[in-house]
Amino acid sequence: MGPPYVGMAVMEPAIDVGTVPIKIKIRVAGLL
Known about the structure:
The protein is an all-alpha fold. It contains one helix and no strands.
């Protein structure tokens, strides 16, 4: 896995990318 800080640096962008579709889905649900 490598040093912990490398894992955190990789995970944070992944979490940000994961929240984008959720926000879009919420907006679409609000429009519908």
